[in-house]
Design goal:
Helix content: 40-55%
Radius of gyration: 28 Å
Strand content: under 5%
Distance between the termini: 53 Å
Low-confidence stretches: none
Number of strands: 2
């Protein structure tokens, strides 16, 4: 009953006892006595780096090569050294490689054309659009790298001796915050 004397309210949703409906779960176990059920490949082929997609190797409009192919290979081999190449998806590595190569492309354009540009209608000096594009790609690169590095940090199997000096310095910086 409420303070004003009216009968309103009642039991609230989610309060009180809840019925316990425990369902029985059956576990199916299978044993394989005869291994002939499994298909074995004729020939096993080892690949150092997975095949690189064509869009990572494409020629650019300015005639220069895109660096995505090299960045993909380098990143994949770096992940392989830490035992995480199967944990990080190829699509994530491709996104990282493409973003880094686009950032490099923007930085080359800034070096070639400068930090200022001419406004299309007024002709006044404005900041080069390559500067803001470069910043956007750098932000994207960092976000993707944080995703990759968090997978490595959680699942990596590299020993301390195998890590690069740059990785050791990052570990020191991260542990110093504690």
């Amino acid at each position: 009953m409420a303070k004003d004397g009216t009968a309103r309210g009642g039991a609230r949703i989610g309060s009180g006892k809840k019925p316990t409906n425990k369902k029985k779960v059956e576990v199916l176990t299978t044993t394989f006595d005869d291994m002939s059920d499994f298909i074995t490949p004729d020939e096993i082929e080892g690949v150092e780096v997975p095949p690189i997609k064509d869009y990572l190797k494409a020629k650019q409009k300015n005639g220069k090569d895109l660096y995505a192919q090299d960045i993909f290979k380098t990143t994949y081999l770096w992940l392989e050294k830490r035992g995480c190449e199967t944990l990080v998806g190829n699509q994530l590595i491709e996104q990282y490689a493409m973003s880094v190569s686009r950032w490099i492309q923007c930085e080359e354009a800034i070096s070639e054309f400068g930090m200022l540009a001419k406004h299309p209608t007024t002709g006044n000096a404005i900041a080069s659009p390559y500067v803001s594009m470069s910043q956007a790609y750098m932000k994207q690169v960092n976000q993707i790298w944080y995703q990759i590095y968090s997978i490595i940090q959680d699942n990596g199997s590299a020993e301390i001796d195998e890590l690069d000096p740059q990785d050791l310095m990052m570990e020191k910086l991260l542990r110093a915050r504690k």
